[in-house]
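In this section we turn from sequence analysis to structure. A common task in structural bioinformatics is to predict how a protein folds when a small molecule is present, because the ligand can shape the pocket around it. The inputs are simple: the amino acid sequence and a SMILES string for the ligand, here pyridoxal-5'-phosphate. Study the lines below before reading on.
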Amino acid sequence: MKIESKTVHWGDRKKVGGFTPVTTPIYTAASYVYDSMDQLDRVFDLQEQGPSYARYDNPTRNALEEVMRELEGGAGAIACASGMIAIHTAILAALLDRPKRVLAANMMYGATTSMLMKIFDPLGVETTQVDPCDLAAFEKALNETKPGCVIVETIANPLLRVPALDKIAQLCRKADAPLIVDNTFATPLLVRPLELGANIVCHSVTKYLAGHGDVLGGVIVSDAANFDTIRTLSRTMGPVLGPFESYLTMRGIKTLGLRFERQCSNANQVAAWLAKHQAVERVYFPGLPAHPDAEAVGRLFPANQCSGLVAFEIKGADKPKIFKFMESLKMVVRATSLGDVHTMILYPAMASHRDLSPKHRERLGIHENLVRMSIGIEAIEDILADLDQALAI
Ligand SMILES: *Cc1c(COP(=O)(O)O)cnc(C)c1O
């Protein structure tokens, strides 16, 4: 079955009693009763599948985990209450019986970098940052630091660089360091990191997967070697997603293929249009021929699809000018997040990369005149018209 069909069908239609609901209901029960104590005993022991207590299993959440496991091609999945707690749990699991060292991409979601620096570091987990798009530097850092795990993003925040994930995975295998990939920006429609040799995939389902701006959630999908540890951690700590959010996420995933196709095609057009606009200094978009990682993009992504994110710099703009531009937008939503059906815009220096010092941002190339858009499913004419009138102000 093709992945677009799996998004529609997977996880649902479990028989309850004598009938089968077409979609999975929202199960709110905190605990579950079995006729025989022997059966409950087997369920507690994971010898038999079934819910016993909501921190361990919930049928609505399990349905979402099933579709995500299938979409990413993993051995198991855990749906979590946020993208951040999914990443946190994945790193904890990877490091549990390995050296307490992380090798991390130097360009990542701001909160992921903050988590490594402000939570893991004081606990004795040392992080080394490296440019994942510089394979020689990456291999050197890998060999020098001998990390307990490596973490990178498929499409890096916020300048949309695309590391050669297949080659990175190969190097990590050789170094025996599990590779965690944050696949939020790409979705499994673009890249399935486990198929390329990664070990654990995380998503913020808040973004493309749920897709409608009404859910906070995350998911971990893992290979067989790491899943038991992840599940044990999850059962102990309870980072799990609630049944209502699980339901909404699953409902969102059913239209992921359609939404993403439109978002990708709209983004291609917005990027090409911005690149020719006289008020625009520079456009960052993996689909542009001049993109520094064009080779990896061509090898890893399907033709003409590179997700719906477009970043760009406005000529000579300082913070007040950027604020004025953003306030002039009439349809595009000024809000933090991405992957929703509506087109959104954010100012990385104030939002996703707020926690970094101005110097650190500048070093990463996140300039004061940079904005990042997530292109929605609206008519392309309306998106371009809104940008055009705001850029003219
Ligand atoms: C949003 C995001 C996160 C964090 O997810 P939450 O659901 O907000 O906790 C992590 N990584 C990336 C790439 C994101 O875009």
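The chain has two domains: 3-253, 257-391. As an exercise, try to locate the residues that line the pyridoxal-5'-phosphate site and compare them with your own expectations.
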